[in-house]
Write a structure and sequence with these properties.
Layout lengths: L41 H14 L9 H13 L21 E4 L7 H5 L4 E4 L1 H11 L11
Length: 145
């Protein structure tokens, strides 16, 4: 059995492995347990906040009280059955639908937004997968190739 050296008396053992900052080209180390160095910690949050400001609130995009009522009525009329986007063709998703998805993204077109023929009931998992693969990813980011 090999003896491993122990820290000198009174010296603290390292608590975390330091990693390089996630910012491309930055040579600094990230804070323990984090992804970013102290110079870039605010960068991802600032980018996200700016994107959210450009996007606007859910209500400003049409997802208001009227939408919530229409959404609940639509889901109830379809017994909260998910259309099954995330499962194999011919299979049925058994997770209850909680999202009314716009099959063709409305991109602010009010007529397309309210056209029930453009709606489908999906569970959150199926909706997230559809959004990531068909609509160009989350927060308007391009989908990975």
């Amino acid at each position: 059995m090999t003896d491993h050296p122990s820290p000198a008396a009174g010296a603290a053992a390292p608590t975390a492995i330091l990693r390089p900052c996630a910012r491309p080209g930055c040579g600094a180390y990230a804070a323990a347990g984090g992804r970013w160095c102290s110079a870039h910690t605010a960068a991802p949050q600032a980018v996200r906040a700016a994107a959210d400001r450009r996007r606007g609130t859910a209500a400003s995009r049409g997802y208001d009280h009227r939408w919530q009522r229409a959404r609940l009525a639509y889901l109830a009329a379809r017994s909260y059955r998910c259309a099954g986007y995330a499962v194999a063709p011919g299979a049925t998703c058994l997770t209850p639908a909680s999202v009314v998805d716009h099959i063709v993204p409305h991109r602010g077109d009010s007529a397309l937004f309210w056209a029930e023929t453009n709606w489908q009931p999906l569970c959150k998992r199926c909706h997230d997968r559809k959004t990531a693969t068909e609509d160009g990813g989350f927060r308007g980011a391009p989908a990975a190739a």
